[in-house]
C-alpha cells in the first residue's frame, strides 16, 4: 500500500509537470518561465534549490558520524550562497535581461570566457544532480524492502524527473516545486510533532540535550592553522562556489520584478538554513528511539537511519507523508538542477556553432530538450559509478562546487563590481584557478590548504594581475 501511494504521488507530479508544459511557447518560457513569477513561488523555488537529498539524508548522516561543524559547507555555506546572491548579485543580473548566467560572461568579457565558464558550470552539476538520483534509488530500495535495487531505483527516479523537466522546463520546475515544497514543509513538521510525542523522546528538549552531551553541537574548529583553513575552505566551497550557478540565477530570473528576485532569494536562503534543522532533529531522535538498529546502520550507511526508522516505527499514514515529502525534496531539486546545466550547454556552447540566420526558436527549443535528455543519461551513468565508489550524498554535493569556486566566482564578482576587470584578467583568472586547483588535487589533496581554496586564491590573483597588466601596457 505504501509503494502504491508513493507511485500515485509520482504520477501526480508527472501530470502537474506535463500540464505546466502547456505554458511553454518559446525558449524564454522554457528557461525563465517568462520572468513572471510572484514572491511566494520564487521563495519556494529558491528554498528547493538546496533542500534536497543531502538535506534530509546526507547532512544528518554527516552530523551523526561527526558533529555540527562537519556540516559547515551545507547548510551553512549553501545558505550563505543564496543570501549573498540575493543581496549583491540578483539585482544587477536581473537588469541585464539574460537568459543564462553564461550570457553574462559573454557580454562582460568574450566568447572564450563564456564557453569556458559554461563548461565549468555545467560539469559542476554532474555530481549535484547525481546525488539526487542516488538518493531516489535509495528511497525506492527502502520502500520496496530491497525488491527494487538501488541501481533500478536510480533508473526509475531519473526517468520520472526527466519526463516533466523535458517538456515543461522552468514552468514545470516552478509549478511542481510549489506543490512539492508545500508537502515538504507540512509533512516534515507534522512528522516532527509525531516523533516528539513518542515516550522515548518526550519533546524537542531531551533530543537537543542528549545531542549536546554527546558533543554533536561542536561547531568551531580547533585553534590550529590547518583546522581553521579547512573550516573556511568548507564554508567558501559552497558559500562562494554556488554563487555563479545557473540554477540559482534561473530561479531569481523567473521573478516578475527585481525586488522579488532579490528578496525571494534572500528569504529562500534563510528559510533553508532554519528548516534544515528539522531533518537533523528527526535523525538524531531516531537514534534515541531505536539505538540498536541505528548503531548497526551507522556502521553500514548513516544515510539509512532516518528512512529505516520511519518505515519501522511510524504508522502507515506517517510513512506515506514522510516518503511523499522525501520524494518531493529530491525531485524538486533534481528537476531544477537537471535543467540548469542543459540550458547552459545549449545556449552558451552549442548555439554559438549554429547558423543564427536559419535557426528558429522552435528548432532551438527542440535542441535544448535533446540536451536535457543526453545530460540525464550522463547523470545516470555517473550515479551508478558513484554508487560503486561508495561516495556519500553529502560528499557528492560538496565536491560539485569546487570547480566553480576555483574558476567562475572571481570573474563573476569582478565583472560586476570592478570596472578595470577585462578579458585578459578573466582568462588568467580561469587558467590559474584551474591549474592550481588541479595541481593541489594531484599532489596535496589532503594538505592543510584545500585544493579548491588554493584555486580560488590563484583565480583572484590572476584577475588582478591580468587586468592591471593590460591597463599599464595601454599607456
In short:
The protein has 475 residues and is an all-alpha fold.
Helix and strand arrangement:
Elements: H1 2-20, H2 27-32, H3 39-50, H4 53-65, H5 72-95, H6 101-108, H7 111-143, H8 150-196, H9 204-213, H10 225-239, H11 246-253, H12 258-275, H13 277-289, H14 291-300, H15 305-313, H16 316-350, H17 361-389, H18 393-400, H19 402-407, H20 409-417, H21 423-443, H22 451-473
Helix pairs in contact: 1-8, 1-16, 3-8, 3-11, 3-12, 3-16, 4-13, 4-18, 5-10, 5-11, 5-12, 6-7, 7-8, 7-16, 7-17, 7-18, 7-21, 8-13, 8-16, 8-17, 9-13, 11-12, 13-14, 13-15, 16-17, 20-22, 21-22
Helix content: over 70%
Superfamily at the CATH H level of the largest domain? Sodium/glucose cotransporter
Number of helices: 22
Largest sheet: none
**What CATH architecture label of the largest domain applies?**
Up-down Bundle
CATH topology of the largest domain: Sodium/glucose cotransporter
| Percent of sequence in beta strands | under 5%
Residue-averaged pLDDT, rounded? 88
How would you describe the shape?
globular
Which ranges are low-confidence, i.e. pLDDT below 50, for 5 or more consecutive residues? none
Number of strands: 0
Q: H/E order of the elements?
A: HHHHHHHHHHHHHHHHHHHHHH
User: What is the domain tally?
Assistant: 2
Query: What's the CATH first level of the largest domain?
Result: Mainly Alpha
Taking Cα atoms only, what radius of gyration do you get, to the nearest Å?
22 Å
Structural class: mainly alpha
Separation of termini?
A: 76 Å
